Amino acid sequence: NIHLVAKWLSILEKKMEQHSEGSHENFRVFISAEPAPSPDGHIIPQGILENSIKITNEPPTGMHANLHKALDNFSQDTLEMCARENEFKSILFALCYFHAVVAERRKFGPQGWNRSYPFNTGDLTISVNVLYNYLEANAK
């Protein structure tokens, strides 16, 4: 009965707010949930999500492919265009890794995120251009 769970979660959120002040510093609440089959089932209140540590036991199956796909957007010339090549390549890899993580997280929908934002290939390309301009303009 999903409507009963939704009502209970809002009560739980209020109780957690009430007891958060003045509680023992080692007090923790553990909640376990199965992923919702559809976006309509994403009923965990935002207040609980914002004050939680989210852990998943599902391996990121598409990370390797997503990382390769992100890196494939850039040619060898792009990788060598910056005067500070080592810094450029390291940060470009970090941007591609972030892009791969966001792409992998899309299958979970907005759950666990404050807002849904795709960080698409255009965003990745613009970020790399900003990175290049920043590194070229700054000696440190």
Automatic annotation (TrEMBL):
<dbReference type="InterPro" id="IPR041658">
    <property type="entry name" value="AAA_lid_11"/>
</dbReference>
<dbReference type="Pfam" id="PF03028">
    <property type="entry name" value="Dynein_heavy"/>
</dbReference>
<dbReference type="InterPro" id="IPR004273">
    <property type="entry name" value="Dynein_heavy_D6_P-loop"/>
</dbReference>
<feature type="domain" description="Dynein heavy chain region D6 P-loop">
    <location>
        <begin position="1"/>
        <end position="56"/>
    </location>
</feature>
<dbReference type="InterPro" id="IPR027417">
    <property type="entry name" value="P-loop_NTPase"/>
</dbReference>
<dbReference type="InterPro" id="IPR042219">
    <property type="entry name" value="AAA_lid_11_sf"/>
</dbReference>
<dbReference type="GO" id="GO:0045505">
    <property type="term" value="F:dynein intermediate chain binding"/>
</dbReference>
<dbReference type="GO" id="GO:0051959">
    <property type="term" value="F:dynein light intermediate chain binding"/>
</dbReference>
<feature type="domain" description="Dynein heavy chain AAA lid">
    <location>
        <begin position="88"/>
        <end position="138"/>
    </location>
</feature>
<dbReference type="Pfam" id="PF18198">
    <property type="entry name" value="AAA_lid_11"/>
</dbReference>
<protein>
    <recommendedName>
        <fullName>Dynein heavy chain AAA lid domain-containing protein</fullName>
    </recommendedName>
</protein>
<dbReference type="InterPro" id="IPR026983">
    <property type="entry name" value="DHC"/>
</dbReference>
<dbReference type="GO" id="GO:0007018">
    <property type="term" value="P:microtubule-based movement"/>
</dbReference>
<dbReference type="GO" id="GO:0008569">
    <property type="term" value="F:minus-end-directed microtubule motor activity"/>
</dbReference>
<dbReference type="GO" id="GO:0005858">
    <property type="term" value="C:axonemal dynein complex"/>
</dbReference>
